[in-house]
Design goal:
Layout (H helix, E strand, L loop, with lengths): L12 H11 L13 H4 L13 H13 L2 H11 L15 H9 L2 E4 L4 E2 L3 E3 L5 E2 L1 H13 L2 E4 L5 H10 L4 E6 L2 H6 L1 E2 L4 E10 L15 E5 L3 H9 L4 E5 L2 H9 L5 E4 L1 H11 L4 E17 L4 H28 L8 H16 L1 H31 L1 E6 L5 E4 L1 H7 L9 H5 L7 H14 L1 E10 L2 E13 L5 E10 L1 H58 L8 H25 L2 H6 L1 H16 L2 E6 L8 H22 L3 E9 L2 E8 L6 H5 L6 H10 L3 E7 L2 E9 L3
Parallel strand pairs: 1-5, 9-10, 9-11, 18-19
Antiparallel strand pairs: 2-3, 3-4, 6-12, 7-12, 8-11, 8-12, 13-14, 13-17, 15-16, 16-17, 19-20, 20-22, 21-22
């Protein structure tokens, strides 16, 4: 492409742009896309991990998610389009570039005389502004001499560059026309056209809000043409030049002006226009560059190297220096006389100024605080409102209008706002407001519909009342919590799915237990009984009398195994629960538990006549069984008490022991104590579970409502 043998090259922008920046190839640039859907999709890079290390994949994913948006931005700025050689500029030149530089040690430039603070010539003929520092840096780095040539106006200066009479212009705004006519470096500075207003006047958030106000512009300026083309309905007041515009703003003759922030702050400092303040940046973005004659692409590359070597921070420091500098003008005697008269007038009016000074400062501080509050609300997605005693909205912050997708020209009443609320949430808001009229505090989360989009918001308000209890005032905030709410709903959905899966697993487990218990009881137990009878028959055989004792021992072992199998079958699924109900099943389980574990258990019940469903009976039985198993395994208890009672239509099951206790919160996270099983079974039968534990023992309480 550099040789002109190809017109286009296809690649991913992040790769090519970085290479172009590293090699200073500023005569190459990204021009567009092919419109092929598959190629338009963003290219994603991934870590590749061994397929037998899924843990590393999980760790890397968590690390990637932990990188904040600001950190990603910093990484992009570090590695994309920012890489360049750290060698001195002379050392980084190619042989061809050094040869060109040796043949062009004398360069000629020009610049408008009045373009402060970017460039200017003062009354002593001294060249100043950002351009002067850039030229000094360029001359120093490349050991060249740059000579200034004066032209009467900007048009002739620019034409001289086109004609090749000068080699470059050190500061110029980039536009499409100039891109075609001259070579332009990487932008030196980038700034947004900014709205300025009087510190005693209104503040403006955007150009739309200037409607109905007086907007100052300078005759035939590029800013004036831009504003007239894009905002023709604004009330423009035209002045001869920019300084006249800014003085008119300072004097209150106009309400606002739009300008480069560098130019405005320089003018404020030079002419002491301290009552002018910045309101807001506009959507119009400008870039400042160095313009080079088309016949000297080598010179363009040298300038780009210098700009990259300086870096944006150093250029910003240079710009700050010239923004705050004061230009010294020659003053004649007539000016001195006027100055003396001005001082005299100042002394006469000093008392008035002192009185009004504090007021002006206070207004300025309040306006600045209001601007900070607006910015803070925008970042936090929070809007504020005020309600009077007639329940009328008397103040609404811009963020609420942004949330609802409304412009500043739309008035908004309380009824208008309610029209955005989701119909299903209106009743909840009504009830929360009723409670607020009693407590003085309102808080509610609900949905609003904005176009085709549904958003979640959280509204909080504080109400004040008169002595008779009537509402006097209310102030509140509305916060966009859509992202948080979606995440919460997703968590709830996942929890519900997990609980549903757990319920199914418990049901499957119970069915499998029932099947195994039935097979143990109906099949294996019967076969052992037959085997025992067969051995009993052999005991009666006279031929086997010498082996009678051994046969009897085998028979006793078979009987013991049969009892153990019966116990296992009963613990897997007690048939007595299906046949006789919960009370008898608990009595049987406790009796066998005492015989097996040698721990005293006292069982008391006043709920003999209670009728429960099969699911509830099984759940309570399993909770008791699991609790007793935990006591035997962990508690070192000597005595246990199990009670079952009915209190106010609630069935209360309690399992109490005198053991060593445990940390409930820690145990809930451990897979070893079976508390998760107890908790899940209580939830499945819609019972409330409470576990209290100390070094004096543990109490497990299950509260099951009976009026369901």
């Amino acid at each position: 492409m550099l040789k002109g043998e190809a017109d286009y090259f296809l690649c991913y922008p992040s790769i090519c742009d970085t290479y172009i920046a590293q090699k200073f190839l500023t005569n190459l640039e990204s021009r567009g896309h092919l419109g092929i859907e598959e190629l338009e999709k963003p290219k994603k890079a991934h870590f590749a991990v061994r397929n037998d290390w899924p843990e590393l994949v999980s760790i890397l994913n968590k690390a990637i998610l932990a990188v904040t948006t600001e950190e990603k931005k910093q990484l992009r700025e570090k590695w994309f389009n920012r890489s360049y050689s750290q060698k001195s500029l002379i050392e980084s030149l190619t042989d061809a570039e050094k040869l060109w530089l040796d043949s062009n040690r004398r360069l000629v430039f020009s610049q408008p005389k009045k373009y402060s603070p970017y460039s200017y010539v003062d009354s002593d003929g001294v060249f100043g502004g950002l351009a002067s520092d850039l030229i000094k840096e360029f001359n120093s780095q490349y050991k060249v001499d740059s000579y200034y040539v004066d032209y009467p106006n900007w048009s002739e200066t620019y034409q001289a560059l086109l004609d090749g009479k000068i080699d470059y212009i050190p500061t110029i705004n980039i536009n499409e026309k100039r891109k075609q006519e001259v070579l332009l470096t990487t932008p030196i500075l980038t700034y947004n056209l900014t709205i300025f207003s009087h510190d005693d006047g209104p503040y403006f958030n955007n150009l739309d809000e200037l409607a109905g106000y007086r907007v100052g512009i300078s005759k035939n300026s590029s800013v004036a043409n831009l504003l007239r083309a894009n905002y023709p309905n604004l009330n423009f007041v035209t002045y001869k030049n920019g300084v006249d515009v800014y003085r008119a703003l300072s004097d209150g003759k106009i309400d606002a002006a739009a300008a480069s922030p560098h130019v405005m702050y320089h003018t404020i400092n030079e002419y002491n226009l301290e009552n002018i303040v910045a309101s807001a940046e506009t959507e119009f973005r400008f870039e400042l560059a160095i313009a080079v004659n088309k016949s000297k692409p080598e010179l363009l590359t040298l300038f780009n190297r210098m700009i990259t070597n300086l870096g944006p921070d150093e250029i910003d420091k240079l710009m700050d220096k010239w923004t705050t500098v004061k230009i010294v003008h020659r003053i004649d005697w007539q000016s001195i006389i006027f100055w003396v008269l001005g001082v005299t007038l100042l002394l006469i009016t000093l008392s008035t100024i002192l009185i009004t000074l504090n007021k002006a400062k206070t207004i300025k501080i309040l306006a600045e605080n209001d601007k900070r509050l607006t910015n803070a609300q925008r970042v936090a997605k929070i809007g504020s409102w005020e309600l009077n005693d007639r329940r009328e909205l008397v103040q609404i912050s811009p963020q609420i209008r942004t949330l609802l997708g409304l412009g500043s020209e739309f008035s908004l009443t309380q009824e208008d706002y309610r029209s955005f609320v989701h119909p299903d949430d209106l009743e909840g808001i009504k009830q929360s407001w009723k409670r607020a009229l009693k407590t003085g505090l309102y808080q509610h989360e609900y949905r609003i519909s904005v176009g085709n989009e549904e958003k979640w918001v959280r509204e909080v308000a504080e109400l004040t009342f008169e002595s008779n209890g009537k509402l006097n005032h209310a102030s509140g905030i509305v916060q966009d919590i859509t992202e948080r709410k979606i995440a919460e709903l997703k968590v709830i959905q996942n929890e519900n799915e997990l609980r549903s899966l757990t319920s199914k697993l418990l049901n499957v487990q119970e069915e499998e237990r029932r099947r195994v218990a039935r097979e143990l009881h109906d099949d294996l137990s019967q076969r052992l009984a037959v085997l025992s009878l067969s051995i009993g028959t052999l005991e009666q055989d006279k031929d086997l009398l010498p082996a009678k004792d051994k046969l009897n021992a085998v028979k006793q072992n078979i009987i013991t195994v049969a009892k153990d199998i019966h116990g296992i079958s009963r613990r897997l699924h007690p048939s007595i629960l299906d046949d006789l109900g919960l009370i008898d099943a608990l009595k049987s389980e406790i009796k066998n538990y005492v015989d097996r574990e040698m721990i005293a258990v006292d069982f008391e019940t006043t709920a003999n006549k209670v009728e429960l469903g099969k699911e509830a009976e099984l759940g309570l039985f399993r909770i008791t069984q699991e609790s007793l198993r935990n006591i035997a395994k962990y508690s070192e208890a000597s005595k246990v008490q199990v009670t079952l009672s009915i209190i106010n239509q609630h069935l209360i099951l309690k399992v109490m022991d005198d053991g060593i206790g445990f940390d409930v919160q820690e145990a809930m996270l451990s897979p070893g104590l079976g508390l998760q099983s107890i908790t899940e079974r209580a939830r499945l039968i819609k019972a409330k579970l409470d576990i209290q534990s100390s070094d004096q023992g543990t109490i497990i309480t299950v509260d099951l409502p009976l009026d369901r």
